[in-house]
Amino acid sequence: MSEPRLRLDKVERRFRTEAGELPVLRGAELTLNAGEIVALVAPSGTGKSTLLHLAGLLERPDAGEVFIDGKAAGTLGDEARSGLRGRSIGFVYQFHHLLPEFTALENVVLPQMVNGASEQAAAARARELLAGFGLQGREDHRPGRLSGGEQQRVAIARALANRPGLLLADEPTGNLDVATSERVFAQLLEAVRGAGVAALIATHNPDLAARMDRVVTLREGRIVAG
Fold first, then answer.
1. In the sheet where 71-72 sits, what is the strand order?
2. Which position among 16, 28, 94, 165 has the lowest Cβ density within 10 Å, counted as fewest Cβ atoms?
């Protein structure tokens, strides 16, 4: 049996404040298998973003371990963690964070070239992804000339460009109107399921959460069934 795409083992995270130490995660545990899409639903301020940052190797836990495809990341140096993150993990945020000086195509090409792909191969992959999101004819537009929904679809294409095994998304449609959110989320689910990617998606929307394979939440710093 293959290793889980993501496994959090008794992960703890604490922050220092003027009032003292603030525990955010207290032994959080989660297993996410290939092809599984899990909704993370929890109130603001309970540690959702912290959990996603730890899962994405953007922060280190104070205790416990994060495993990506069975590989413990806590003991890895910064360069090794960065390489593992670039190869294995895709990120989608509430705000697209596209590079404004580059076109839609270039925004999807760049992370592939950073990961070692040739410009030709990266461009072919980028065009394929953008077409899958209905963005034919928009490839040469910079973000400022795209609608909010189009920008977020480019951001999702960018996140999938390096064929990650794991996708982490923090309110990926939270900045869009209801109708656009529905369309973009449907395309996100279709793309993720089609690629067999494991996905952990934070959302406040119960209707979107219900369309995923299961729902988890954070309660007193631990992950429990939603």
1. 20-32, 6-17, 63-68, 71-72
2. 16
Determine the 3-state secondary structure of 87 from DSSP.
Answer: helix
DSSP 182: H
**Residue 31, domain extent:** 6-225
Residue 151's CATH number? 3.40.50.300
According to the model, what pLDDT value does residue 57 have?
Answer: 93
| pTM higher than 0.70 | yes
- Supply angle C-alpha 30, 4, 117, rounded to 5: 120
- Residue 1 in domain: no
Question: Is residue 154 domain-resident?
Answer: yes
Number of domains in the chain: 1
In a domain, 86, yes or no: yes
- Label residue 100 exposed, middle or buried (CB < 10 Å: 0-12, 13-18, 19+): exposed
SS3 218: strand
- Distance between CA atoms of 166 and 171, rounded to whole angstroms? 16
Please give the C-alpha separations between residue 161 and each of 22, 71, 90, 122, 219, in angstroms, as whole numbers.
37, 22, 8, 8, 34
| Amino acid type, 171 | E
- Block means of pLDDT (10 residues each) for the chain, 226 residues, are 88 84 88 93 83 92 93 87 89 84 96 92 95 90 91 91 92 80 84 88 88 92 86
Give the distance between the most distant pair of CA atoms in the chain: 54
Asked if the structure places residue 174 within a domain, the reply is yes
Specify the pLDDT at position 226: 64
